[in-house]
Amino acid sequence: MRPVFIGGFLLYLFLSMILVYPVISSAAVHAKRLHDDLFSVSFADDKEGWACGRWGTILHTKDGGKTWTNQKSGTDYTLSSIYFADAQHGWAVGDGGTILHTDNGGDTWQRQQSPVMYRLMSVHFVSANKGWAVGERTHILTTSDGGKTWTKQFSDVDYILKSVSFFDHSTGWAVGEYGYIYHTTNGGRTWENRGGGFRIVPETGDIEAGTFLFSIVATGPNTAMAVGIDGYVAKTEDAGKTWQPIATGGPKTQMFCVAVGKNGNMILAGGSGVFLTSVNRGRNWKNADFRPSISYGWIYGLCRRGASGYVAVGWQGSIFLNEDGEGMVWKEIAY
What we know:
About 5% of the residues lie in helices and about 40% in strands. It has about 325 residues and is mostly beta strands. The protein has a domain at about 45-155: Neuraminidase, CATH 2.120.10.30. The strands form seven sheets. A five-stranded mixed sheet has the order 25-29-28-27-26, with no helix packed on it. It has a four-stranded antiparallel sheet with strand order 1-2-3-4, with no helix packed on it. Strands 5-6-7-8 form a four-stranded antiparallel sheet, with no helix packed on it.
C-alpha cells in the first residue's frame, strides 16, 4: 500500500502546484503568442464583453468579440475571473484578495476593500448589487451593495474553491479541489457540502476523476453541470443529492470551463485546445471545428455572448469566437 499512497500523494502535490493556473512550457506555443494568458471572459449582451488575465490584463470589446482593446485595471496582480451584471457594472477578482469594480463599463476600475488577502478565483453576480466571490482556504465572500462592502460568508477546510455560480438570488454552487461541492438555497446564509473527499484509485495510485473540479454552472433551481480533471463532466438534477457522470467521448484532458445555452446546447473546453459541443442537452457530443485548427494550448474561460454565440479565452491571450449559436464552428481572433 505504501507505493500507492506515495504515488497518489505526489500527484496531488503536482496538481496543487500547477492547476491553480495552467502552465504552458512549449517554446513553439510561446512563440505564437505575445499576449498574456487570459483566464475569464464575460459578456453583458451580444456586443459588449470583457476578458481578464495575468498582470492585471483587462480587455474590452464593443463588437461582439471581433476586436479588443486594453483597459487600465490599475493592478499588476493576476486577475482570475471577471463578471458583468450589465454593460456598466462589472467586477474582477484575483491574487492577493484583489477585487476591482467598474460602474462605467470599464472606462475606470476601482479597487474594493476585500476581507481576505488570499487568491480569489471566481466571481458571480445576479444583479448590480448582489454577488459572490470564492477562492483559497474555501472562502466564500458576498456583497449586497455592489461591493461597497464585502463580508466573509463561509470558510471551511484549507482548499481552493475555483468556481461559483448562482441561478438566482437564492440558489448557488461553489466547487473546487478534492471534489468539494457546496450548495446553498438561501443566498449563502448556509452552505451544504454536496461532495468532497480525497479519493485515490487503489490499483494505480492516481487521483480519481472528479477529485479536482474547475467550473460549475447553475442551470436551474435544482440542476447544475460541473467539470474537472481527466475529462470529468457531471450533472445533477436533484440539487446535488446525486451526480451523474456524462460520457462525452472526448479526451481525458482537463476540462476547465462549461457554458450552457438557452436551447439546451452545451459547450465544454479545456486542455490541448479541446472544445466539445452538444445540441441535445448532453446526450451526444461532437468536436468543434476550428478555423484555423489548433492542437495545443488550453482554454480556461468560456461564456455565452448574449443570445448569438460564445466566446472563449486562454493560453497566450488566445481568443476564439463562435457565431453559429451552437458552438460548432470557432475562429481565432487577432488583436
